[in-house]
Design brief:
Number of helices: 2
Number of domains: 2
Number of strands: 19
Distance between the termini: 64 Å
Shape: elongated
Largest sheet: 8 strands, antiparallel, barrel
Order of helices and strands: HEEEEEEEEEEHEEEEEEEEE
Structural class: mainly beta
Helix content: 10-25%
Radius of gyration: 22 Å
Length: about 230
């Protein structure tokens, strides 16, 4: 019995070590808020770089990397999932892979680069809640219109409307829609648009990303916190 337990323990260590060494380098996202982070493991060091976070930790176990001075740690759960936290304060955040560094384009996905980062989108699957005319504060101009044929326009304040030749919802590299659902049932997604020719502001062929919130109870969809569509 003791020998069997020892064998299982050794297999767990070996498995953890394989996960740690084969962690997919790329862009990860926090599950709680979808903030992005770059993760990389080189030898005995793991590094994480995000908007307001920069961690460099050394290996302390087969699947864990720690910074003794700050008590920060990075723990590898699988080849595309990690936990980042702080031992002193008992904080933990789970991150999952959004896009590997060596990503290659896939059928069915629209992928594009914006500000040096790669993103992905697919046509929406919730037309009733997304297709329509969005009025600023629910009253009027400037407006956004999303049509069922995946075209439309986006109007900024005091600027002529920018034609939209394609729009969809942001996904990860697997084509899974990135959605955050709140306790009240409202959920957030990222709307992706591709601009067409005819705008004095947005360059034809360029992409844009903007937050969209769907409120099933209020039967409203809101773009950028102010453009409202009631359905």
């Amino acid at each position: 019995m003791k020998i069997k337990i020892l064998i299982v323990f050794l297999l767990c260590l070996i498995s953890s070590d394989i996960f740690a060494e084969s962690l997919t380098p790329g862009t990860y996202r926090y599950k709680k808020n979808q903030n992005e982070a770059k993760i990389k493991i080189t030898g005995d060091q793991a590094s994480l770089t995000a908007w307001n976070v920069e961690l460099k930790c050394l290996k302390t176990s087969p699947s864990k990397y720690s910074d003794k001075a700050t008590t920060d740690f990075i723990e590898v759960i699988s080849k595309d999932e990690i936990i980042v936290g702080n031992e002193k304060y008992g904080s933990k955040d789970e991150l999952v892979l959004y896009a590997p560094d060596d990503y290659k384009s896939k059928d069915g996905l629209t992928d594009f680069v914006l500000d040096g980062e790669r993103y992905f989108a697919i046509p929406d699957n919730e037309n009733k809640k997304l297709v329509g005319e969005y009025l600023t504060e629910g009253k009027g101009d400037p407006k956004v219109e999303l049509k069922s044929d995946k075209t439309g326009y986006f109007q900024r304040h005091q600027v002529s409307p920018s034609p939209i030749v394609w729009w969809g919802i942001e996904t990860n590299y697997k084509g899974e829609i990135q959605k955050l659902t709140g306790e009240n049932g409202n959920y957030k997604m990222i709307l992706v648009v591709k601009y067409g020719a005819g705008s004095s502001y947005d360059k034809a062929g360029s992409f844009g990303r903007m937050q969209i919130v769907v409120s099933p109870s209020a039967k409203k969809t809101i773009i950028m916190g102010e453009r409202i569509y009631s359905w």
